[in-house]
Amino acid sequence: MLAEKTVKRTPTASNGASDNGTLFLDEIGDLPKTSQAALLRVLQEREVTPLGSTKATKVDLRVISATHRRVDTLAASDAFRSDLYACASSSTYSPPPPCSPKRDRSTWVVRRWMRRFGLDPEAHRK
User: Fold this and answer.
1) Domain 2-92 architecture
2) C-beta of residue 59 within 8 angstroms of C-beta of residue 19
3) Domain ranges in the chain?
4) Phi, psi of 20 (to 5 degrees)
5) Between vectors from CA 61 to CA 18 and to CA 111, what angle results, nearest 5°?
6) Element (H or E) spanning 10, and its range?
7) Neighbours of 114 (CB within 10 A)
8) For residue 20, is it left (φ>0), alpha (ψ between -120 and 50) or beta?
9) pLDDT in tens, 2-56
10) Which of 36, 93, 87, 24 is nearest to 61 (CA)?
């Protein structure tokens, strides 16, 4: 089950401490199809069923995922749910590799944020 693999049970999880938080999913590209279905339900319905409970609880959480695999390619080959990919890929980015010069990495970050806030990075280069 997805919850058993990704979320550790804590004493405060039952009283809503997980609400308004961030769920980090590492290696989402390796997630089995059954877990992908459970994750999609959480993202669409915005509710989870805590371990040991039978009642679903509404949550408001941010999901951040990472992988070394090309999830778009996996979705095209049906190895990853395309509906989950569409839902989870609303904001994606691929940072420059660590071996690139530091100046290139910082320029990439600045340009990324400028585009995110509707500014044209090329207009500010003059």
Assistant:
1) 3-Layer(aba) Sandwich (3.40)
2) yes
3) 2-92, 95-126
4) 60, 30
5) 135
6) none
7) 15
8) left
9) 444 444 444 444 445 557 888 888 999 999 999 999 999 999 999 988 888 899 9
10) 24
